[in-house]
Amino acid sequence: MVTPTMEPFAYRDGRLFAEGVDLADLALAVGTPFYCYSHAHLSEQAERFDAAFAKLPHLTCFSVKACSNLAILALMARRGLGFDIVSGGELARCLAAGAAPATIVYSGVGKTAAEMKQALEAGIRCFNVESPGELDLLNQVAGELGVTAPVALRVNPDVDPQTHPYISTGMKENKFGISHREAVAEYQRAAAMANIEVVGIDCHIGSQLTSVQPFLDALDRLLALVAQLAAAGVTVRHLDLGGGLGIRYRAESPPTPAEYATPLVERILPTGLTVILEPGRVLVGNGGCFVTRVLYTKENDGKRFVIVDAGMNDLVRPTLYGAYQEILPVAAHAERPNRIVDVVGPICESGDFLARSRELVVVRPGELLAVMSAGAYGFSMASTYNTRPRVAEVMVQGERYHLIRERETVASLMAGEHIPEGV
Ligand code: LLP
Fold this sequence. Notes:
The chain is an alpha/beta fold. It has helices spanning about 25-30, 40-50, 70-80, 90-95, 115-120, 130-145, 185-190, 215-230, 255-270, 280-285, 315-320, 410-415, and strands at about 10, 15-20, 20, 35-40, 60-65, 80-85, 105, 125-130, 150-155, 180, 195-200, 240, 275, 290-300, 305-310, 325-330, 340-345, 355-360, 370, 390-395, 400-405. The protein is globular, with a radius of gyration of 23 Å. The structure holds ligand LLP. Ligand LLP binds near residues 243 and 317.
């Protein structure tokens, strides 16, 4: 008997529902594949996470890269959250969704001069600067505009988050941040710059962390630096701890937002510092699922395949990280046996799978499958490889649903392409 690992999606009489809406009805209404988000789950997670830091002056900045649909950004903004962005594109999305510029922090190792200008003109809260070269350029761009840039240096605390190597970002071999050994000197340089105002200190150590200890280690490193900075005459007002809190995909038992926040709050409270958080996955991951239809089933030399209408372009996590995401039949078939199958897509790559060697109830062509915990880094990492238009996104709210992104068309994919004369 399969049971969903989370409440926003649950069986009623053998049919998988998103809140009060039958996913099979949604599939008929919007076609497949599609992403489906639960309004209640997203709202509750945002409120729960933010409330966990209530004892401190704080700002929870949703990490836009996890799920950047305008409706989701608007939902977060209306619940008092700010945003963590990594591009001019994400800045434009936040502003379009109604975010206040003063709630936006800008991370990333490769900000361009044009993006810096865009963010300075908007009046964002802070640039998380990741290299001496970036600091120089930001000072120059701010000078040209006649403004001052608010800055935190992203310090690489060199702690091991014990997560997948592709998503661990705070160790010295990663490209992110400035070494904590060089941080004081770099802060002194920043403090002396005409168009830079030092406002904070920042780190982000990785993603899908399932224990609190690495966060505490990073916090200790940062607090030690704040003390060294004060001794060197540089004051910071806020401490940005980045994102990274994990979710349950399968058997993980990550700390709840309260379990994560409590020891951090305890240590930060006496410092008087404001804290900024940049959660992504924990706010949206379990609030989304991805629905696909079975096209064919086949057997090659005893190996069974379920071929679905969704591929690695739509959901890349399984193949890119070897990530496990639960797959549930939209109509439960208690009477059918289970089989070990590969769930694969239509793309011409062997890496095009949603699950490998997975025990799944027997499914037939035309039936629907739901890939769970797909709210974070699902649609936002989708591509149009094989000229496959990106899929629709739907938000369910009680008994109602809203189409929050239309399925792309092939015409929209070809728009902007030109065939030169004499080609
Ligand atoms: N802040 C910064 C500077 C980041 O680089 C990230 C994520 C976050 C916050 C949010 O982290 P979260 O709370 O979501 O763990 N595509 C991968 C995850 C990449 C995370 C990149 N940085 C995946 O699907 O697992």
